[in-house]
Amino acid sequence: MTISFILVLFLTVLIHLINTLIYSARWAGVKTGRLATAYSLFNIIFLIASTANTIQAPLLSSLVEHTINRGLTILGSHLPDDILLQMPAYRQELGILEYKIRLVILAATVGTVIGGLLLPPFVRLFARTILLFEEVGSVPRLFLLALTPRRFWGALKTLRPASPSSLRRVMGQRLGLPKGFLLLNIFISGIYTTGVLSALYAGALFPHYRTTATLLSPIVNGLATVLLATVVDPTAAVITDQALQGRREEKDVRQMVAYLALTRFLGTLLAQLLFVPAAWLIRGVAQLLV
């Protein structure tokens, strides 16, 4: 296992950890009554995930390039793609690539689990940060205060994972949320987890037109984007607003955040099943375009 691949796994864990913690913005916003400020401040944290994505993308792409180049070096670049896929040497390279990408999806699951377990302490920490920001009035001053040794180490000590008893308590409550949008979140999370990875693998299945295949990830992600924008996000927003208006209790938002994290975790498991079929779907579309 190379250093670059270990870095890919680490960045994947980090990205999915932060993408899970983003649910805390709603909970902390309700807790403090400052939802807009909560989202604004979390965007700063989300910059870390965006930077990690920028570094991760070329590293992932290089995995596919190495697989294709090794196969073409052994068998020759003159072979048509369909013949190339039948060659044992190239199929072995595809098997190694599939194994590595499945490890990346597993890293996404690990990051989601860590993020889910850190949600309760992170919400408390984030709520205090929102109130501190209100006092100091600027992000640079907030950083200077937060990064003092006393505050920094104190914050780290509060980030203890949720206990099994607290998890059972939340999950044991009567579900006061629409079940449909939670089920859809499993499907959406699964597609988002595997979309780009399936497109990269499709490039290895269609090596002579791998750039075309790799750029077709919206074929998979498009449906998830529509469902997220039209069903999941609006439903979560309504529940959050109702809690801010006093028409729902804060525990409903806490339960929603917990179940969104759980369904996101289940979505990363679903991604293992969707990964290869989605890659063949993308390859088929790429063949139609060329």
Automatic annotation (TrEMBL):
Q: Where are the transmembrane segments?
A: 36-55, 101-119, 181-202, 222-244, 256-282
Q: In which pathway does it act?
A: Cell wall biogenesis; peptidoglycan biosynthesis
What's a GO biological-process term for it?
cell wall organization
Give any Pfam family that matches. Answer: Amj
The compartments listed are: Cell membrane
UniProt-recorded Gene Ontology molecular function terms: lipid-linked peptidoglycan transporter activity
Bilayer topology: Multi-pass membrane protein
Protein name as annotated: Lipid II flippase Amj
What's this chain's function?
A: Involved in peptidoglycan biosynthesis. Transports lipid-linked peptidoglycan precursors from the inner to the outer leaflet of the cytoplasmic membrane.
What's this protein's family per the entry? Belongs to the Amj family.
Q: Which UniProt keywords apply?
A: Cell membrane, Cell shape, Cell wall biogenesis/degradation, Membrane, Peptidoglycan synthesis, Transmembrane, Transmembrane helix, Transport
Q: Which HAMAP family match?
A: Amj_flippase
A single GO cellular-component term from the record reads: plasma membrane
